[in-house]
Design goal:
22% of the residues lie in helices and 41% in strands. Helix 1 runs antiparallel to helix 2 (31-58). It has a 17-stranded parallel β-sheet that branches. Strands 1, 2, 3, 21 and 22 form a five-stranded antiparallel β-sheet that branches. The longest helix has 28 residues, at 31-58. The protein contains three helices and 22 strands.
């Protein structure tokens, strides 16, 4: 730890020195230009301080080790960790969010199973504790999602003893210009199968099903957490990023694409399989620890060793995304 801290200290001190030089230079600029440069310098300073806070946390420094550096809060975000800088009481530092995965490494089947169980549990808890959760029973089919049923753009369903089907965005066979639905957030706990098809975009999609989850057509999602106990099937022109979990089989086929960074885990006790078929693309880690991963010659699996593993695998955390709130 001493050698690691020794390498980080010069970096943080260098950042603070650069910020001091920027502030000094501002005093010599004319009024209009000074205001513009002041804004840029302020935003740059906020970014450097936020990145410094994350670097210090990664290297194990205690909070408050450097004065003026914001603190960092952390929470689980699907398979990843989300770190967020907290503004100082004077409001000088803006909030930044950082997404972290764990560096790739080899682990035994027992570790993958432990991690998969934790991801499954976290997903179920998140759905069942969602604000505005609607409790329904029996098989249900929706051709559109009524915004009046959403709480701040978030749909949350708990469906018992039945299957759930979402036929969204019109019918390509009959519509000259198929409509495309756009949903901010949709989550559902279903005691049965789930079918999502049509033409729709989800910012966030979370599904927990005791049956099989099917995604077909032109469904896209920025971030997904999907667990299908009996299986997960992704086909057609579906495009997603996130995590797919099953205790049986995961099939990715057609021109379906799991974008970087994604994780697909088929963890069962016997006969489970993860298959990449057709011209499908997997940009992430694809594992079936107790059985086999099948891949057609036309399917693409990008090098898993360059992808990230979930937070619950015991390896080094790595930042892969950042944004200002």
């Amino acid at each position: 730890m001493k050698s690691v801290r020794g390498s980080v200290l010069p970096l943080v001190l260098g950042i603070l020195l650069v910020l001091s030089i920027l502030v000094t230079s501002l005093l010599r600029l004319p009024g209009p230009l000074r205001r513009t440069v002041t804004l840029v310098a302020k935003e740059t300073q906020e970014m450097y301080l936020a990145e410094s806070a994350v670097l210090l946390k990664l290297e194990g420094f205690p909070e408050g080790f450097f004065a003026g550096v914001p603190s960092v809060e952390s929470r689980v975000h699907g398979p990843w960790m989300l770190w967020q800088t907290v503004p100082r009481t004077d409001g000088h530092v803006s909030k930044f969010q950082f997404l972290l995965g764990n560096a790739y490494s080899h682990f035994p089947t027992s570790e993958w199973m432990r991690c998969a169980v934790l991801l499954e549990h976290n997903l179920h808890e998140r759905i069942m504790r969602a604000d505005g959760l609607r409790n329904l029973s029996g098989t249900r089919r929706f051709f559109r999602l009524d915004s009046s049923d959403a709480l701040q753009g978030m749909f949350a369903l708990n469906l018992s003893a039945g299957d759930l089907t979402l036929d969204l965005g019109g019918n390509e066979a009959f519509d000259v210009i198929p409509k495309r639905s756009s949903i901010h957030s949709f989550m559902a706990n279903v005691e049965g199968d789930v079918k999502i098809r049509g033409s729709a975009h989800f910012d966030t999609l979370r599904i927990y099903a005791t049956g099989t989850v099917f995604l077909q057509g032109r469904v896209t999602a920025d971030f997904v957490e999907i667990f299908g106990q009996a299986g997960v099937s992704v086909a057609g022109d579906v495009s997603l990023a996130g995590v797919l979990l099953s205790k049986q089989n995961i099939d990715i086929s057609g021109r379906a694409k799991l974008n970087f960074p994604s994780v697909a885990i088929a963890v069962g006790y016997r006969g489970n399989r993860l298959a990449l078929r057709g011209k499908s693309i997997m940009e992430g880690v694809a594992v079936a620890p107790s059985e086999v991963v099948e891949r057609d010659s036309s399917a693409t699996l990008l090098d898993s060793t360059k992808a990230f593993m979930p937070f619950c695998m015991d390896s080094r955390p790595v930042v892969f995304a950042r944004r200002r709130l």
